[in-house]
Amino acid sequence: MRTRERIAFKRHLKTEIVPGEAVYLVSDDHVTTLQGRHVEALAPLLDGTRTPDRVLADLPADIPADQARRLLDRLDAAGLTTLLPDDDPEDDPEAAYWDAARLAAPRGRVRVVRVGDVPFDTTVDALRRAGLHVTDDDADFTIVVCRDYLDPGLRVVDRGTTPWLPVKPTGARAWVGPVFTPGDGPCRRCLVTRLAANRPAEAHLCASLGRPGPLARPLVGLAPVAAIACHTAALEAAKWLAGHRPTGRRAIWEFDSLDLRGNRHEVSRLPQCPECGDPGVCQERNTAPVLLRSRTKRSVDGGGHRSASPGEVLDRYRHLVGPVTGVVRDIRRDDRGHAFFNSYRSGTNTAVGPTGLAALRSTLRCENGGKGVTPLHAEVGALCEALERHSAVHRGDETVVRGSFDCLDDAVHPDSVQLYDPRQYVDRHAYNAAHSAFQHVPEPFDDREVLDWTPVWSLTARRHRLLPTGMLYYGAPSPASVTANSNGCAAGSSLEDAVLQGMLEIVERDAIALWWYNRTRMPAVDLDAAGDPFVDELRDVYAGLDREVWVLDLTADLGIPVLAAVSRRIGGPHDDVMFGFGAHLDPKVALRRALTELNQVMPAVCALREEDRPGLDVDLRNWLRDCTADNQPYLRPDPVLPVRRPGDFGYTPDDDLLTDVEAVRSTLERRGMEVLVLDQTRPDIGLPVVKVVVPGMRHHWSRLGPGRLYDVPVELGRVARPVAYEETNPVPMFL
Q: Where does the YcaO domain start and stop, copy by copy (predicted)?
C-alpha cells in the first residue's frame, strides 16, 4: 500500500457509527456492517485527511500497529477503501460512481461516426458530459449513430479493429448496443442475420420492388428519447473504457418511450457465421452418417414419448424467443376459443409456401402452432414447430451436389417422393389457379436438367443417397419441378426423438391419403374405452359448443395406429367439419394426438364469422361451404365394422426411443421401402431437427400418382378394386 496518498472509505460510502454496536457503511443501495472495537476506533480516521501512516499514528495506543495494518488490508481487499491523490476532491459524485462499480475512472478517446441521415450532436455532447475525450482521429472506442441497424453503411465500421457500439436514437423505441469487439464474440453479421429474419414483410416488399433494402423510413423522434439513447451509449462507452466487460450474452438495450420499459435482446454468436465462425459446420453435419443410439424415455404423459420433459425443453430453448433478435418472435395462446383447446401460436409458418399477402390468407396453418393436453405442452410444441421450420429454411451453407438425375448414381427420383399422376401435369395451370398453394402441381421433372442435390442418409442401406435440395429446404433455388413441404419434418428433444416423430408423421399422412382419396368408411374408436379424463373433458367442452366429436381408425397395412378425430357443428347453418390426426405406436398417444390437433384448429373455426368466409383459403372455403358429414359419408364411422378399442392394437410399451425408431423403420422396410433422413439441426439453434423421407409413402395432399394410394386399400379389403384416377376424392385435404 502506497503511503503518500490519503486513505478513505470509498466515496460512495457514508460512515455511521453506533458505539458499542457496529460501524455502518451506507451506500446508494446497500448497508454494510463492520463490527469490532478496533474498527470503531479506525473508522473516524478514514475520512480522506490522513495518509495510511498518519492513520496508524493517530489510533489509540492500546491498538497494536500490526493488528491495525491487517485491518486496513482487509478493508482494502473487501473493496471498501481507496487512496486519494492530494488534489482529489472528497465530494465527487462521478468518482463515487466509479468507486461503487469497483472501476477506475475511464481513460481513452472516443470517435463518433454517423451512418445515414441522423443527428449526432447529442451523442457528442453526451460523451463530453461523461468526461470522455471525443476525437475525429484514431480512438479507443467508436460509437456509430444510425437509423437502422441493417444499414449497409455499418459494414465499414465493422471492418475496423477497435470496439464499437451502434446506437439508434430515433423512433419510439431507441436502441443501444451491443458492443462489437473484432475477433471476440458475435459480429455484426450475426446480428444482421437475426434482425433481418424478423422483418419478413419488409423482405417481401423489397423483393417486390426490386430494392436491396433496408427500406427508407420517415425520420421519427423526440429530443428526450434521443437524449436517453445517446447518454446511455455514452455510459456504455465510459464503462468499457473503465474496464467493465459484460458477462454472458451481449445484447441490444431497447427503450420503449411509450411505456418506459427497457428490454434486453440478446445477441449470440452464430457458429456457422461466414465472417466470425465456421461456414462449413452445416456441411459437415449434412455429410455425416445419422447415427442413432439408445435413448431413455423421460416424458410419456403428454402427446408423445420424449427424451426430455416439456419443462426441460422450454428452459433449454426459451432464449431463442424474442421480437428483435430471437429466432421465434413470440409464443402466445390463441385466445379465440375455449381455454381447454390449449392452442398456441408462434409466428409465420415458412412451410405454407406463399409469401406476402397470400400468406395471410393461406390456411388454418398460416402460423406455426402448438397443441397439447396442458398449456405447457402446447407452448413447447409451438416453440419446437417454429424452430423446426426455421431450421429447414435454405441458408446457402448446405451441402449440394450439382448434376442431373441421369448422371448421379445415388440420386432418388423425385417422382417417387412427390407422386403426382402424369394427368395432373396436363391441366396443372388451371388446377393451380383453382386451388391453394398446398395443392400446387409443379412442372414435370426433367431427368436431364442440372440442379442442386443434397445428401440424405439411408437408415436402410447405411449410405448416402441424393435428393433435390429444393425438396428438402424451404426457399432453396430449384427448378419449378420440385417443391419443399413439411411432410416428415420433425423436431425433438434428441435426434432419436426427432427421427421417430418424422417417421410417424410420414405414416400418418400416408394413412390419411389412403382413406381420404378412396373415400372409404372406417371403423369407429370407442372413446369410453380410452379411460382418459382428458378425452372425457374434451367431449364435454365440445358438447357445450354445440359440436359433435368422433374418432376413426385409419390404421393401414403398416399396423401403426393412425387415428382421425372428426368434429362437426350441430344445428348451425354449416357443419364446419374439422379434423385432427395422430399416429403413434401407443394407441392412447395416437388418440391424444388426434384430439389435441383437432383442438389446435378449433379456435379459428369457433371465431369464424360469415363475413370472414369469402377471404379464406379457397379449398378451406369450399369445404366449409359445401361439405357436410351427410354428403361426405366417409367422414362417418362404418356401422358394420367392429368398434376399435385401445387394447385391440396389441401395443407393448418400451422405455427406449431407439427401440421405437427401429420398430417403425423395420415395419416400413418390410413393405419394401427405404427410410432416408436429413439432419437439419442448426448449430446456432441446437434443437435436433430432421427431415424424414420414405419414397413411395403418400402425402395427404392431392398427389394422385400410381402406387400405395390404389393398391393398399384393395390389399386391406376396403375396396374390391383399385379406385380409378377419375374416382378419387375431388376435394383435396386442406389441412
A: 370-735
Tell me if 243 is assigned to some domain: yes
Closest CA to 522 of 726, 717, 287, 385: 717
Q: How far apart are CA 589 and CA 300, in angstroms?
A: 9
Write down the mean pLDDT value for the chain: 92
Assign residue 179 the CATH number of its domain. 3.40.50.720
Quick one: which of 663, 645, 646, 666 has its CA closest to 654? 663
| Predicted confidence (pLDDT) per residue in 520-537, tens digit | 999 999 999 999 999 999
Task: Give a yes or no: residue 222 inside a domain.
Answer: yes
Strand 676-679 relative to strand 332-333, pairing: unpaired
Of 46, 37, 63, 64, the closest CA to residue 55 belongs to 46
Residue among 454, 439, 340 at smallest CA distance from 397: 454
Phi/psi at 623 (5° precision): -65, -50
Q: Which domain holds residue 34?
A: 6-87
Do 141 and 44 lie in one domain? The reply is: no
- Non-local (6+) Cβ contacts of 592 within 8 A are 302, 303, 373, 532, 534, 535, 582
Residues 194 and 128 both lie in one domain = yes
CATH number assigned to the domain comprising residue 80 = 3.90.930.60
Indicate whether 416 belongs to any domain: no
Characterize 335-347 residue by residue with b for buried, 16 or more Cβ atoms within 10 angstroms of its Cβ, and e for exposed: eebbebbbbbbbb
Distance CA 504, CA 692 (A): 10
One domain, residues 121 and 76: no
* Cell output for 433: 389457379
Q: Which of 97, 92, 137, 136 is nearest to 235 (CA)?
A: 97
Q: pLDDT, tens digit, for every residue of 372-381?
A: 999 999 999 9
For residues 164 and 179, give the distance between their C-alpha atoms in angstroms, rounded to a whole number.
6
Last residue in a domain, options 205, 235, 266: 266
Which amino acid makes up residue 509? R
Out of 215, 234, 266, pick the residue that ends a domain: 266
Note whether 125 and 249 are same-domain residues: yes
The 3-state secondary structure of 211-242, one letter per residue: CCCCCCCCCCCCHHHHHHHHHHHHHHHHHHHC
Residue pLDDT, tens place only, 115-155: 988 888 999 999 999 999 999 989 999 999 999 999 999 98
Residue 437 falls inside a structural domain: no
User: Is residue 116 domain-shared with residue 65, that is, in the same domain?
Assistant: no
Question: CB-side exposure of 422: number of CA atoms within 13 Å?
Answer: 0
The DSSP H or E segment spanning 156 is helix 154-158
Do 244 and 162 sit in the same domain of this protein? Answer: yes
Which residue type occupies 107?
R
In the chain, the number of structural domains is 2
Nearest Cα to 369, choosing from 390, 340, 349?
349
Question: Rg (Cα) of the chain, in Å, rounded?
Answer: 33
For residues 75 and 170, membership in a common domain is answered with no
Collect all residues with Cβ–Cβ distance below 8 Å to 263 and sequence separation of at least 6: 253, 254, 256
The answer to whether residues 409 and 450 touch, using CB atoms and an 8 Å cutoff, is no
- How far lies 268's CA from each of 178, 248, 319, 398, 684, in Å? 10, 10, 10, 21, 8
Grid coordinates representing 582 are 395422430
Instruction: Give the model's confidence band at 355: pLDDT under 50 very low, under 70 low, under 90 confident, else very high.
Output: very low
Statement to judge: residues 122 and 194 lie in one domain = yes
The 10s digit of each residue's pLDDT in 395-430 is 999 999 999 999 999 999 999 999 999 999 999 999
